[in-house]
Structure formats: C-alpha cells, structure tokens
Amino acid sequence: MQSGTYECSSQVEMSCRPGLIMRIRQRLARWQRERRNRVALAQLLEHDDRLLKDIGVTRAELVVALDKPSPRDAAIYLTHNRRCKGL
C-alpha cells in the first residue's frame, strides 16, 4: 500500500460505508411498513360499510388509497387525504 492511500478489504468494506448500510436498512424497513399497511387496509375492505363508517373511513377512500402505486404508503395517503378534507 502506498503512503496516503486507503484500501478496504472485502471483509472491512461494509464498515467503510456505514451511511449506505443505514440507508439500505431504512429503505427495507419502510418497504416492510408499507406492505403491512397495504395488507391491513386491504383487510378492512372485507368489513361492511357500517363498520367502516364507525372507524371513520369509506370503502371508496380505501380503494383509492390502495390504487396508489406500490412505493407510496397507502396508509399515509389515506391519512393525508382525510386531513385535507378536514376530517
């Protein structure tokens, strides 16, 4: 190794990029959360309209939220949509 240069061995390379590893973990955690939220919202569609009204959501709102592209968290969209309506 020359003076003034830095090399990572394959075993140490992971510690050379802690920011990258943290971003990957955060992205995976976000994907897992988004998936859980989508599954939970989809399960709400199995209930009748009376129950949905009791919890403050309509079937149409759930369908619109679930129709959003997969990278968007459907639960966050639903919450934002309800806040914009002042509910």
Care to describe what's here?
It is built from five helices and no strands. With 87 residues, the chain is mainly α. It has one domain. Helix 4 crosses helix 5. The longest helix is centred in the middle third of the chain and has 27 residues. The model has no long low-confidence stretch (mean pLDDT 82).
- H/E element sequence: HHHHH
Please provide the count of β strands: 0
Q: Specify the number of helices.
A: 5
Shape descriptor reads elongated
Distance between the termini: 64 Å
Uncertain ranges: none
The chain-level structural class is: mainly alpha
Give the DSSP E fraction (strand runs of 2 or more residues): under 5%
Helical amount: 55-70%
Question: Topology, please?
Answer:
Elements: H1 13-16, H2 18-44, H3 49-54, H4 59-67, H5 74-84
Helix pairs in contact: 2-4, 4-5
Brief digest:
With 87 residues, the chain is mainly α. It is 66% helix and 0% strand.
Characteristic key phrases:
single chain; 87 residues; mainly alpha
